[in-house]
Amino acid sequence: MNDRELAESIIDAVREPLVVLDGDLTIRRANDSFYRTFKVESQETVGRRIYDLGNGQWDIPSLRQLLDDVLSTSRTFDDYLVEHDFPELGPRTMLLNARRIERMEWILLAIEDVTESRHALSALQEREDRLRLALEAGRMGAWEWDLRTDRSIWDARQYEIYGLEPDDDRVLRPTAALEFVHPNDRARTREKIDEVFKTDRDYQHEFRIVRPDGAVRWLVGHGMIIRDPSGRATRMVGINYDITEQKETARRQKLLTDELNHRVKNMLTTMQSIAAQTVRRAASLEDFQNSFSDRLHALARGHDILVRSNWQPTELSELLHFALEPFGETARIRVDCDDILLRPEAALAFCLITHELAINATKYGALSSADGVLDIECRTVPEQPDAITFTWRERGGPPVSAPSGKGFGSKLIERSARHDLNGNAEIDFRPEGVVCIIRFAPDDLAAIDHEGHRHD
Asked: Per-residue pLDDT tens for 338-374?
């Protein structure tokens, strides 16, 4: 077999389309793969210039120039891209490579159809873009652990979650990266990772990390093992995302639920006590209904003002004005209070106390007479800056005489002052008018700093 026969045999054996061009770019030879790929016959190919084939798919000025350079300078070119709508094939993407055949002024032109691989690459890129967008939208950090080299790879978001700079190489080894896990969660995190290798289950774990600045963050991690064809684990890949805000929301929700349960229980206990005391002293069912309804309304008004303040500390002066509003004639009721904030429990108790005192004043005291006046003072105690003294003073009403025994109103005031306000109440039935003094302990005040922030 001579050199030419050998060359032709090699050309036919190549799986990619090949053509041999002479000095004026006329096709001298093409292999079977070329004919199959482009669905053409030898008689319509051999002897024709390459740029005359088909519908002019190779008639490209830059391609002509490159082929001329191959002949004149023995230069080569690789991966020249041609995108064209080929006859019988439709839109295809081809890569061309050219070499000069020495001792002959011929060119060996190889053509590779990369349409499917380009489509696959494009689809892969689209999937990667979608994954990247999903990670960014979910603020997730991606990581990979190469088990063969025991090295980690983190994306930018993962570094951000951990509060690290992207060039921080402390995380390159997974064992070192574990040092950022909160000490109380580190052992359990190691156990969860070991379980993945033992059970081949996906990794899922909630844990805390401590950032370099000392901030503690809650994370959720998801991961899985990647194995080679032989079944050997080669990589572990996964994502982390920050759930600190969700944890904080859940914590606040639990606090609110616990607080609500506590308040409901307290409310039911208060209502039960009011009902029991009222029915015990009621002269008739109608008397019970009226008294009980009035006290429930007082309790409800206290809740109204607390709801308006979102159950935050309430100004005592505002609370008094609101509680006394149903009794009208505000010109005869003077309220003079220091700036004092009460916690919700103390505020509710004060609503009931104020109601009992106002009912008594309306029926028998200063508010039952056109000339009667009610003075209320709320003062902090100089020697105890966090305590207050509340004084209810009636004057100008009918003469007052002390009752033969304590009624429900007096007992409710004393009990509320003692149990709900952690203080004491003194009621003095003076002839010129009732005087009630209530002293509060510091625990019943909302602690307020110099910037107005509450500290329970």
From this structure: 888 888 878 888 888 888 888 888 888 898 888 889 9
CATH topology of domain 138-242: Beta-Lactamase (3.30.450)
138-242 matches 3-113 in CATH topology? yes
* pTM of the predicted structure, to 2 decimals: 0.45
Which ranges of 139-243 does DSSP label H, i.e. alpha helix? 156-161, 174-177, 183-199
Q: Tell me the three state secondary structure of residue 30.
A: strand
Question: pLDDT confidence of 8, banded at 50, 70, 90?
Answer: low
263 and 249 in contact (C-beta within 8 Å)? no
Query: pLDDT value at position 156?
Result: 86
d(CA 135, CA 158): 10
CB 436 within 8 A of CB 391: yes
Phi and psi torsions of 402, nearest 5°: -70, 140
What number of helices (H) and strands (E) belong to the chain?
Answer: 12, 17
Task: Give the separation between CA 268 and CA 178, rounded to whole angstroms.
Answer: 51
Identify whether the C-beta of residue 244 lies closer than 8 Å to the C-beta of residue 211. Answer: no
Is CATH 3.40.50.2300 what the domain over 248-444 is classified as, yes or no?
no
Give tens-digit pLDDT for 99-157: 887 767 788 899 998 888 877 777 666 666 565 655 555 578 888 899 888 888 888 88
pLDDT of residue 101: 78
Query: How far is the CA of 194 from the CAs of 141, 158, 198, in angstroms?
Result: 21, 22, 6
The set of residues, in sequence order, having a beta carbon less than 8 Å from that of 165 and lying 6+ positions away, is 159
Tokens of 108: 């060996």
- Distance from chain centroid for Cα 199: 31
Residue spans of the domains in the chain: they are 3-113, 138-242, 248-444
The mean pLDDT of 221-230, rounded to a whole number, is 88
Q: Does domain 3-113 have CATH number 3.30.450.20?
A: yes
Burial of 78 by CB count in 10 Å (0-12 exposed, 13-18 middle, 19+ buried)?
A: exposed
385-404 exposure pattern, b = at least 16 Cβ within 10 A, e = fewer? eebbbbbbbbbbbeebeeee
For position 394, what pLDDT does the model report?
Answer: 93
